[in-house]
Design a protein that fits this description.
The complex is a heterodimer of chains A (387) and B (336).
Chain A: E1 6-11, E2 32-33, E3 37-38, H1 41-49, E4 54-58, H2 63-70, E5 84-88, E6 92-93, E7 96-97, H3 103-108, H4 111-115, E8 121-126, E9 129-131, H5 135-144, E10 149-155, E11 165-169, E12 175-180, E13 189-198, H6 199-210, H7 219-229, E14 234-238, E15 243-245, H8 249-258, E16 285-287, E17 292-294, E18 296-298, E19 303-304, E20 307-309, E21 312-313, E22 318-319, E23 324-330, E24 335-336, E25 341-347, E26 352-353, E27 358-359, E28 367-369, H9 371-386
Chain B: E1 5-11, H1 19-22, E2 31-32, E3 36-37, H2 39-48, E4 53-58, H3 63-69, E5 83-86, H4 95-100, H5 103-108, E6 113-117, E7 121-123, H6 128-136, E8 141-146, E9 149-157, H7 158-166, H8 168-171, H9 176-181, E10 189-193, E11 198-200, H10 204-213, H11 217-223, E12 240-242, E13 247-253, E14 258-259, E15 262-268, E16 273-274, E17 279-281, E18 284-285, E19 290-291, E20 296-298, E21 300-302, E22 307-308, E23 313-315, E24 322-324, E25 329-330, H12 332-335
Parallel strand pairs in B: 1-4, 1-6, 4-5, 8-10, 12-14, 13-15, 14-16, 15-17, 15-18, 16-19, 17-20, 18-21, 19-22, 20-23, 21-24, 22-25
Antiparallel strand pairs in B: 2-3, 6-9, 7-11, 8-9
The chains are: A alpha/beta (387), B alpha/beta (336).
Chain lengths: 387, 336
């Protein structure tokens, strides 16, 4: 293998259990987003656009959809003779299958993958966030600061800081302490889960971490604190721009709605930083004579005869006549039957919403419309009618 | 059995009445139906019929056609064995003379039958039943027809094609079509009537009428279905953004557009922008064209990369749509 300056390792094994049924049969990085993408398209496109062409993708939970989606990486121009994308599932060692017990152990078990490229730097990414970022600029910063580790951070609102891993730094952005979800945060710089390590340093600390039986094998909880204790040079890289963790039904919905806000920083129409995805080859969208579409994103393969407002429609969605969809995310190939009304919800893929299904939502929460939800909704409706 | 066919696409058609749309490109590469090029239909039909070796004979200018086809990956034709072949030939007249320039391709192929097609027929058609008929009726040469009219798609054995190419000087035949049309020939000729949606695009008027017909759902669904998809070169455009104030009805819209104005009974290709208070009716807007605000377009075909400045009015008629050339700039002053 030819030497690579920087190898990226993308942690894509997350279960994302707070996304409920959305992650029942697929891993969180494979969850659809923004009308045509999956979450993992963002870090993979960032890699391709940053000129990082060697990417190991670590999978574990429900990998089928993710594996077939990634394929040989051609959608992101990552099908390379040298490097390219490699899916790295857990594997068995002599007597036992070793599941990835934490983020650090996942990388540890794939040290041989990294070794074959003999890199100087290793970029650790997660497949859980929506953002555009030039990793090459971050790498320049890392080299310029002569750091052992560079951690990308973003300023979050103070009242939300206790939900994140918080980096305390001095004025020069040297990391002095790391607090995982602190009750009383002393800084509002949240770790974005993006690290650049000197390869020699990473290797040493992963080996140490693995031999420590008390470690939970996590970068944030174990590896970073151990490096801080040894007074290595850890530096924060302040990122400005759109970044969102889409870990819950509500935050996934919010991130989709953010795409409809033309003032925010996540521009999918930007030519110089395209987000690539596997294109499903669908015909153009067909808009009927009675259709009304306002303030929405609509993908190819949709057939719209009803009314859509402030919504994101994935490929192959059908909205029948006199149906109204408001502030919704409708996943691929769902059909909204005639005369239905749905608001503030995520509609599951392939779901058939029967005619005249009326679902109002005045609460702050976002509904997840599934088969089960519809069945329950129908039972409730018939009880109301009986009474 | 299906694998036993070769596909030959004769893309040497002269622009003729399509010159306005084909000035800088082969008729095969004329954008169609929001995200396709005309050649995508016959090429996808061949692939969906199990054909794994397709030879395309283009005529200059073929830059845009080659750019579109690439390695054939989007049609799954980037194969180690067989795949997509591109055979530019010297500017010789006569189909057989051009095929003769690449006789090696035919000699090396071990397929038994050949489909020879033109490049601008719009249809969604499986050639499997055509081959069944050909074999069952023991035909020498089969012509596909639609409403009794020839569709300029032929099926014959590779052996017969090779003989016709070799003997072209003695027989005087220039093309498969001329063989079929010769009443005195002793070959057994058959016809196969295709009953679905099929249009041969030979003029700007054919192009416009056929495009507008596809806005009828029953016509559209005859051409596009999930079982026999029409493939095309993939682009990474985001979904189309319908802004506040947009009003879109009875339209076919591709991805990557930003629409703020009104669109009615029209086809809009990829990455088009339509500004505030603008109205687009009975028109075809090709990829990356930009329409400013307060514009009125009716019965217009905008080729690629056309820029229409604020306040411009462009009007053609249903019989004679106004065609605006690729890359031109239309301003309010020039059009008034």
């Amino acid at each position: 293998m030819a030497k690579q300056k920087c190898v990226a390792m993308l942690l894509a094994g997350g279960k994302g259990s707070r996304l409920k049924e959305l992650t029942e049969s697929l891993a969180k990085p494979a969850v659809p987003f923004g009308g045509k993408y999956r979450i993992i398209d963002f870090p993979l496109s960032n890699c391709a656009n940053s000129g990082i062409h060697t990417v190991g993708v670590l999978t574990q939970y429900q990998p089928l959809v993710l594996n077939s989606y990634i394929g040989i990486g051609s959608a992101w121009d990552l099908d390379r003779k040298n490097g390219g994308v490699t899916v790295l599932p857990p594997y068995s060692e002599s007597s036992e299958v070793k599941w990835y017990s934490g983020t650090a152990s996942a990388i540890y078990q794939n040290l041989n993958y990294i070794k074959q490229y003999d890199p100087e730097y290793v970029l650790i990414l997660s497949g859980d966030h929506i953002y555009k970022m030039n990793y090459d600029t971050m790498l320049d910063y890392h080299i310029d600061k002569q750091a052992d580790v560079t951690i990308s951070v973003i300023e979050v609102p103070w009242d939300e800081a206790s939900r994140f891993g918080i980096m305390n730094t001095d004025e020069e952005y040297n990391v002095t302490r790391f607090d995982e979800k602190p009750e009383k945060p002393e800084s509002n710089l949240a770790s974005m889960g993006i690290y650049i390590f000197k390869w020699s340093v990473l290797r040493k600390y992963l080996e140490m971490d693995e031999s420590n039986p008390d470690s939970s094998n996590d970068f944030g909880k174990d590896v970073i604190p151990a490096m801080l204790a040894d007074e290595l040079k850890l530096i924060a890289y302040p990122f400005k721009g759109y970044w969102k963790d889409v870990g819950t039904v509500k935050s996934l919905w919010e991130a989709n709605m953010d795409l409809l806000d033309n003032d925010q920083d996540l521009n999918l129409f930007e030519h110089s930083w395209r987000i690539y995805s596997v294109n499903p080859n669908q015909p153009p969208q067909i808009i009927g004579t009675e259709a009304k579409i306002k303030h929405s994103l609509v993908n190819e393969g949709c057939v719209i005869d009803g009314e859509i407002e402030q919504s994101v429609m994935f490929q192959g969605v059908e909205v029948e006549a006199a149906a109204v969809v408001k502030e919704c995310v409708v996943m691929p190939n769902a059909r909204i039957g005639k005369g239905s009304y749905i608001e503030r919800a995520i509609v599951m893929n392939e779901l058939e919403v029967p005619e005249n299904t009326i679902i109002h939502n005045h609460s702050d929460d976002i509904l997840l419309i599934t088969e089960e939800y519809l069945a329950e909704h129908e039972r409730r409706q018939s009880r109301v009618e009986e009474a | 059995m299906k694998k036993s066919m070769l596909g030959v696409i004769d893309a040497t058609m002269l622009p003729g009445e399509m010159a306005e749309l084909a000035g800088h490109r082969s008729p095969a590469a004329i954008p169609f139906a929001g995200r396709y090029r005309l050649i995508d239909f016959v090429l996808s039909n061949m692939v969906n019929s199990g054909i794994q070796s397709v030879a395309i004979f283009p005529r200059s200018p073929y830059r845009s056609l080659m750019d579109h086809l690439g390695s054939g990956k989007d049609w799954d034709l980037n194969r180690k064995r067989d795949g997509l072949f591109f055979f530019p030939a010297p500017a010789k007249e006569g189909q057989f003379s051009r095929l003769a320039e690449h006789l090696d391709y035919f000699n090396r192929s071990d397929q038994k039958y050949v489909i020879v097609s033109n490049c601008t027929t719009v249809a969604n058609m499986d050639f499997g039943p055509t081959l069944d008929r050909f074999i069952k009726q023991d035909c020498d040469l089969l012509e596909v027809t639609h409403n009794g009219e020839p569709a300029n798609i032929y099926l014959l054995s590779l052996e017969l094609l090779l003989t016709l190419i070799e003997n072209r000087h003695e027989t005087g035949y220039q093309s498969v079509q001329s063989v079929f049309e010769d009443q005195s020939s002793s070959l057994k000729k058959c016809q196969y009537e295709f009953e679905g949606f099929l249009k041969r695009i030979k003029s700007v008027s054919d192009y416009y009428q056929t495009s507008m017909e596809l806005l009828q759902k029953d016509k559209w669904s005859e051409l596009f279905n999930e079982f026999q998809p029409i493939y095309t070169k993939v682009k990474d455009e985001p979904p189309t953004n319908y802004l506040e104030g947009s009003h879109v009805t009875n339209a076919m819209i591709a991805n990557g557009c930003i629409i703020e104005g009104e669109v009615n009974h029209s086809i809009v290709f990829r990455a088009v922008t339509i500004g505030k208070e603008s109205s687009v009716k009975n028109s075809i807007i090709m990829q990356k064209s930009k329409i400013g605000s307060n514009c009125t377009l009716e019965h217009v075909i905008l080729d690629k990369d056309v820029s229409v400045e604020d306040g411009t009015v462009l009007r053609g008629t249903a019989e004679k749509p106004l065609v605006v050339k690729k890359g031109s700039i239309e301003s309010a002053v020039a059009s008034s």
